[in-house]
Amino acid sequence: MELRIRNLSKTYANGVVALDKVSLTIPTGMFGLLGPNGAGKSTLMRTLATLQECDSGSVFLDDIDVLDEKDEVRRLLGYLPQDFGVYPKVTAYELLDHFAVLKGLTAKGRRREVVDGLLQQTNLFEVRHQKLGAFSGGMRQRFGIAQALLGDPQLIIVDEPTAGLDPQERVRFHNLLSDIGADKTVLLSTHIVSDVADLCANMAIIHKGQVLLSGEPQKLIDDVADKIWARFVTKQELPLFQQHHRVISTRLLMGRTLIHAYAEGDPGHGFEEALATLEDVYFAAITGRHAAHGELP
Ligand code: ADP
């Protein structure tokens, strides 16, 4: 299914503009919505999940008017919110079974089949009789996906699902999402660049309520391919480089400070051309160096 978002805007009562004319087209497959904290991702996710009203704009899921036909959307939607809480004293099986009843799966035999199947798909079958309070963060997120998949949704929205997962759990969670994304529309919001780099065929970068860039990750990387320059600097040199160059990121590498700068041509001063990554695209976009070069939505 295709999700078409046009000029979606939302200003909260306190005056914060959380969404500023957001337009995106989200095809079948995994779509990554990448942005820093406060960018407006959760506001967008909750609006698409029919849990919150926007001020203006339109959203269509194929022919369904998402902002108007909420019941219709809910039938096709699976949602894993950012703050997905579980009841710690019940088991995974009991809670998923309970959610299945709420989703309308009242026939016992069929329900058991579906619940068992989802627990297997999310690799939780072996631990289905353990209490959710004893689950690790990764297990809890996989349980969150299991409940989101009840009712065989065509649109799945997951809001910052990998925050706080250790590397092994993240890989496991990525594999699960990528299986699901094979034939559904999956919208993944995250502030972690590698979530998008690893998983998503299409993506957008959102910052301060606005879509800065959207497209295929590799294309966006190609757009900055010869414009990213790197060098090591000392801590003392750093401010000077920040003053004279468009430094988009600084990070420690084996105890030394590596800076990446954005420049149309060789900036000199000991910089060498770097192999551009999605991280460079992201930092260039949110530091305002690159917005005009990418494919605008
Ligand atoms: P993200 O999910 O990208 O972190 P959010 O959608 O949660 O972004 O928030 C976008 C902006 O809206 C932030 O500045 C946030 O503080 C503000 N915001 C979010 N929810 C509310 C609310 N209920 N009332 C007022 N401001 C809010």
The CATH superfamily title of the largest domain: P-loop containing nucleotide triphosphate hydrolases
CATH fold descriptor of the largest domain: Rossmann fold
**Main beta sheet strand tally, sense and closure:** 6 strands, mixed
Q: Give the end-to-end Cα distance, rounded to a whole number of Å.
A: 19 Å
CATH architecture of the largest domain: 3-Layer(aba) Sandwich
Low-confidence runs of at least 5 consecutive residues: 291-297
Shape: globular
Specify Rg, calculated over alpha carbons. Answer: 21 Å
Keywords: ATP-binding, Cell membrane, Membrane, Nucleotide-binding, Transport
Family: Belongs to the ABC transporter superfamily.
Protein name: ABC transporter ATP-binding protein
GO molecular function, one term: ATP binding
Q: How are the SSEs placed, and which strands pair?
A:
Blueprint: E1 3-11, E2 17-26, E3 29-34, H1 41-48, E4 56-61, E5 64-65, H2 70-76, E6 77-80, H3 92-102, H4 108-121, H5 137-148, E7 155-159, H6 167-180, E8 185-190, H7 193-199, E9 202-207, E10 210-215, H8 217-223, E11 228-233, H9 238-244, E12 247-253, E13 256-262, E14 272-273, H10 278-286
Parallel strand pairs: 3-8, 3-9, 6-7, 7-8
Antiparallel strand pairs: 1-2, 1-4, 4-5, 9-10, 11-13, 11-14, 12-13
The structure holds adenosine-5'-diphosphate.
Adenosine-5'-diphosphate binds at residues 12, 14, 16, 18, 35, 37-43.
